[in-house]
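Predict the 3D structure for this chain.
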Amino acid sequence: MSLLSIGKSGLLAAQVGLSTTGNNITNAGVAGYSRQAAIQSDTATQDQGFGFVGSGTEVSAVRRYYDNFLAVQLRNAESSQASLDAYTKQISQVDNLLADPTAGLSPALQDFFNGVQDATSNPASAASRQAMLSSANSLAGRFQGLSARLTEIASGVNGQITSNVGEINSFAKEIAALNNTIAGLSVDGKAPNDLLDHRDQMLTELNKLVKTTVIPGDNNTLTVEFGTGQPLVVGNTAFQLATSTSPTDASRVTVGYQSPSGAFSALPDSVLTGGQLGGLITFRDGTMDRAQNSLGQVAAGLAVSFNAQHVLGQDQNGALGTPFFAPINAYVGVNSHNSQASTASVSAVVTDASKLTASDYSVDFDGTNFNVTRLSDGQITQINPFPQTVPQTIDGVDYTITGAPQAKDNFLVRPTYNAANDFKVAITDRTKIALAAPIATAAPTANAGNAKISAGTVDPNYLTPGNALAAPVTLTYDKASGSLSGFPPAQDVTVTVNGVATVYPAGTPSVPYTDGAAISFGGINFNISGTPADLDTFTVGPNISGVGDSRNGALLAGLQTKNILDNGNATYQTTYAQMVNFVGNKAREAQISGSAADAAVAQATTQQQSVSGVNLDEEAANLLRYQQAYQASGKVMQVASTLFDVLLNIR
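Done. Predicted structure below.
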């Protein structure tokens, strides 16, 4: 009878082995499946007096071949791969947009300045002036088109972030439910292997969305965290994430926790790393914002600097120039969490192209002072005094703050983010293009000496009330004193010789004459060179015939190659080229890193599969082994039955 039991135990063990092997074979292609093996052990032996005799075998466990270290390595590698893939897809769109030789900004910028140069060459030509306006409108359209496309990409990123958060919540709920089921089935050290595989696969898919950290718990449960320890799944509880509009910028979404009551608590972007979500956040907060801001920096810089020169000219009607482009107002976002009792208001207008940066700024009231923080490097500038009497200029932007603030009031200022979209031509009448200079100089032919006076220019001081010339000023040279007289009595006169400036206060009767010296008063600048004779005169007066004059047009055209932006270190084209180069380098870095991530995933997969993967050749061998064991055990039982029959037939 013992032989029959031994055969039966072997038969049952072989049957379990066959079932386990068959299960491995049929699930070899199932994602996340870990191979299993039936573990046999012998049963208790019995003392027969002459020695101990075995009583058969039993299946002690069905082992799941799984290495947590290798699984974590693979999940981390796949999280990095997914992050880089998401980043690369987005940055490639921006790279292709900005670097396009026909659709990019450079051709439109070149066409515009070609139009300025043509109008300067033919200031009296209506066709040339109209062509300049047309090229300016084309440039504005290109700025707006690029900005619209970047905004479209940013909107797509917002949509993907929202979609990813929804998927993360779904995986979190499923993992929490599996935790609960697995805990209920994990009794006496046994675990439901298939459910563990399914949960691990959910963790793999979750890590492709956001990088997580897994902490083992009791009864085979897991705690899932992300970022710097933010909980996502604890036992059978899944925390709910959600998206909401940024409190200071309606054009972007933020990610945070949503309580059962519906309250939203935003999380900092820095905790959302890895996976598709991390890649999207990195792209949006880094490359996307910088590209939009840098494009806006070129647009704002061009508008402000071109306007600054244009208003110093004279149009065909004899009037001073007006702004050629519309003013650039910075985006100001009022934090929705500000106190309802606050009446504070912040406005910001770009006024100095050379000081303008591509950074965003946070304006905060600490209860006593307003502080403006440059977000790119954390530099803080205090609004002083407050309340203000005049706007305060910070990094080329005039800040005006009014109203009664409350402590912790916060505003987001983005000086250049919307500048490309707001870039518009303010002039529609070609006669309003100020190509001429508002002043004219002359040296009468009756002068006995050979001294000459330059054509003259004006600077922004000329626009100060009272400085613009209403009538000609006649300067007379006195040989005895070697000086010039006749300057307006209400204005200082500055004489610059070899770079050294000497200021003569208003009312000074005369100033010394030096050959070639630069002379300026009331925003008017000119040079007199040569040897004047006694009582020779020189006139400086308003330009009364500027139709064919293009002195200001030449200065406008010269802006193309002038280092204006970045504290006078870059032109419009070089600033745009730097942005294109930055995006291109980032795109290339992402591609290289993506290739490395692909290799890391392949290597981690190989290592993980060497432990958990199903080898069909090995399983085929096991199938034959268990088949033979089954047949042999059956033979044992047959022999035991024959022997039993022999005993029964003895008489």
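Residues 126-185 form the longest helix (60 residues).
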